[in-house]
Amino acid sequence: MATARKNNSSRGTASKGPFNPLGPSNPTSSFETDTGHGGEVHQQSTDTDVHLTTQQGIPVADDQNSLKAGTRGPTLLEDFHFREKIFHFDHERIPERVVHARGYGAHGYFELTKSLADVTRADIFQRVGEKTEAFVRFSTVAGSKGSFDLARDVRGFAVKLYTKQGNWDLVGNNIPVFFIQDAIKFPDIIHAVKPEPDRGFPQAQSAHDTFWDFISLTPESMHMIMWVMSDRAIPRSFRFMEGFGVHTFRFLDANGRSTFVKFHWKPKLGMQSVMWNEAVKINGADPDFHRRDLWDAITSGNFPEWELGVQLFDETFAEKFEFDVLDPTKLIPEEVLPVQVVGRLVLDRVVDNFFAETEQVAFCTQNIPPGIDFSNDPLLQGRNFSYLDTQLKRLGSPNFTHIPINAPRCPFAHFQQDGHMAMHNPKGRANYEPNSLGAEGGPRETPELGFRSFAEPITGTKERLRPDSFADHYSQARMFFRSQTAPEQKHIVDALVFELSKVEHPHIRERMVAHLLTLDAALGEKVGEGLGMELPDPAAPARKPIDVKTSDALSIIARGPASFEGRKLGILATSGADAKIFNALVKAVEKAGAVYEIIAPKISGVTLSDGTGVTAKQKIDGGPSVLYDAVAILVGADELGALLKDAPTQDFVRDAYAHCKFIAFTAETKPLFEKCGFTEEDFDDGCFELGSATNVKQFLEACAKLRVWDRELKVDLDA
C-alpha cells in the first residue's frame, strides 16, 4: 500500500548536508544545498530564484531521483517528470545535415552602401544606409558534426537576410565554382567524398579511392579540384575567407528588365590560409579552431566584416564571354568584369543557443525576394528542389519556418495549416482562396508588390543533353593554377601528391595525372614525379583548352592583406622576461588592431623582470605555435635551462620556423634556437632579435606580410 511521504523524507536527517560543491560563500548562488541519503546533492530554490519546472510548467520537487516502489524497487510509470526528461533527451538530436553538417553561425546585419535601384526592385538594395538583420552559417561540406574544423574542404558561406519583403537566403561557398554542372550528379559527388560505405572511413577527408575515382571520371570537376587542392580549402579563419553565390542570378527592375548578377563576399581583413602541416596539427591541438576564433572575435568586439560585391552584366556580355555564364564550374575573372561593392555584412552577436539557432536554421536557395530571380543554371535549378525537400527530413515538419531563427521578420499571411509543430495556423473561417467571405476571408494576391519571374521566352525539345558550351573543362582550371604565386602552386602540387598517395588503386592515380597533364603539363609532371609513377598520355579533352589570361584576384598571396589587424600573436614567456620589451610588444600589438595570448610553462602565468605578474592563456603543451599568426619568445635567463629540456617548447620554435612565421626573440633565447638545430645562418628577414622598443615596432610592421615564403623551400623540398 502506497503511503504519502513527508517533505525531505528521502533525504538525510540534517538540514544541511556535509557536502556543498559550490562552497558556503559562493556569491553567485542564493539557493540552499541539501544532501540526500545516497550523498546526492539537492540545490533548492528560494522564493526569489527561478524554479525548476517540467515543460508544462509544473514545479519539480526532486530532480535527482526517479519515483520508485521502495528505495530499491522498480521505477514507477507514473513518474511523469522522469518520463518527460528522458523522452526529450532521447529525441533532442535531429538528423544532421547530409552535407555541411559541421557549421557555426552568428547574427549580424547587412548595410547598403550603394543603391541598385536602377537594376533591381529588391527592397534591400534601395536605400543607402539602411540595415537588414542577417544570420550567417559557416560550415565544412564533407565531414560529420563531430569532425574537425581544419579539414581540407569547401567552406559553406550561407547568409539569411531578413528583408522587408521576406527572407533571402544567399546560400554560397568560399569557392566560386562547383564540382558538377548538373544537380543530378550531386548525390554521386557527395557519396564519393563521404566515408566509404563498406568501412565507414575516412572521415572529413577526400584523400581516398572513391572520391578520386569519381573526380577522375568527371572532367567537369577539374576547375573545382584546383581550388580544393589550393590554400583556399584550409582558411585560417572564417573572417579571412571570401564567399560566393556560385551561380548566375538575375536582377529584375520595376519593368521586368533583367540584369545578370554574381554575388561576392570580400573579407575586410583580407584573405589568409594555413599551411597543410599546420592544419594537421591544429586539428589535434584545437578541433574547434574556427569556431573559437569566430566566437572570440565577436565577444571581444572585433566584429567580422565583409563587403558585398556584385558583377553585373547583360545578355550581350554573356554571349561574348568565352564560357557559358550558366555553367557553375566557371567564373568571370574580376579583371574581365570588375566587382562593384554595394554593401557590408557585419557579425556582431553570437547565438544564444547553438541548437535553437545554428543547428535548426534552414537555408533554401529558393528563398529570394521580388527583384531577384533565378537563371537556368541546371545546378541551381536542382538545388531549389533539394533544399526545401531536405528540411522535412531534418526538422520533421513543413512548419520549419515557425522556428524563430527561420521565421521572417516582416508581416506574413497564408493559408497553409496544421502539420507537426504548427504554431501559426490561419485565423478565421477561411483556409482557402478564392473565397467570398470579404475581409474575414484572409490574405489575397498583390500583383503590384508580389514576386514576378523573368518573362523569358522558352523554346526547345525535351531532352537529356549537356550544351556544347559546357564542354571546356580545362581552360579555367589552367587559369586558376597559373594565377597562383610560386608558393601557392607548390601547395597545390603537394596537396595532389598527398591526396593521390592515399589512393590504393594505381589506375585511379594514373587517370587523374592524365587530366593534370592536359590541364597544365608542368603540373602533371610534378605530381607524377611526386608519386614516382610513369607518366600516362594526357587525357583527351571534349573541347580543346584555351589559354586564358591569369587573374591576381584568384591568388591569396597576390591579394594578401597589408596589415596584421585581426591576427593573433603568441607570446611564449617565462618568469624573468624583460618587462620593457614585453610591454612594448603588447602595446604594438594593440595599436596594430591585433590580439595576443601568453603561453607559459605553467598556466598560473609568469613574473616579469620588474616583478609584474602576467596571467597565461595557454600552458606550453596546449598552446603550440600553429595556433598563432606570428610568435615572440621572451625568456628569462634563469628559466632557460628548463626550456632547453622541454620537447613542447622545442616543437613551438621548430614549427614556427617551418611554417614560415615571423619570429621575435630576445638575446637570452638564442641557446634555445641552437638546441632546435638553428644557426645564425638560418635567421632570415622573418627573425627579429628584440633589443629595444624600436625592434618591436619593426617586427609588428613586418608581421603584416603574415609569412616569410622564401623560407619554405629551405624547410620543405618535397613536391
CATH superfamily annotation of one domain: Catalase core domain
Helix content: 25-40%
Structure annotation, total helices = 19
Q: What is the CA-CA span between the terminal residues?
A: 80 Å
Described by the principal axes of the CA atoms, the overall outline is globular
Q: State the CATH architecture of one domain.
A: Beta Barrel
Oligomer classification: single chain
Largest sheet: 10 strands, antiparallel
SSE-based structural type: alpha+beta
What does the average pLDDT come to? 92
CATH fold group of one domain: Catalase HpII,  Chain A, domain 1
Give the number of DSSP strands. Answer: 20
CATH C-level of one domain:
Mainly Beta
Strand content: 15-25%
Query: Spans of 5+ residues with little confidence (pLDDT < 50)?
Result: 1-28
What is the C-alpha radius of gyration, as a whole number of Å?
30 Å
Task: Provide the fold topology.
Layout: E1 32-35, E2 41-44, H1 80-90, E3 103-112, E4 131-140, E5 155-163, E6 166-173, H2 186-193, H3 209-216, H4 222-228, E7 243-244, E8 249-252, E9 258-267, H5 276-285, H6 289-299, E10 305-313, H7 315-320, E11 340-350, H8 355-359, E12 372-374, H9 378-395, H10 475-483, H11 486-501, H12 506-519, H13 521-531, E13 568-573, H14 579-591, E14 595-600, E15 606-607, E16 613-614, E17 618-619, E18 630-634, H15 640-644, H16 647-658, E19 663-665, H17 670-675, E20 687-689, H18 693-703, H19 712-715
Parallel strand pairs: 13-14, 13-18, 14-17, 18-19, 19-20
Antiparallel strand pairs: 1-2, 3-4, 3-11, 4-5, 5-6, 7-9, 8-9, 8-12, 9-10, 10-11, 15-16
Helix pairs in contact: 2-3, 3-12, 4-10, 11-13, 12-13, 14-18
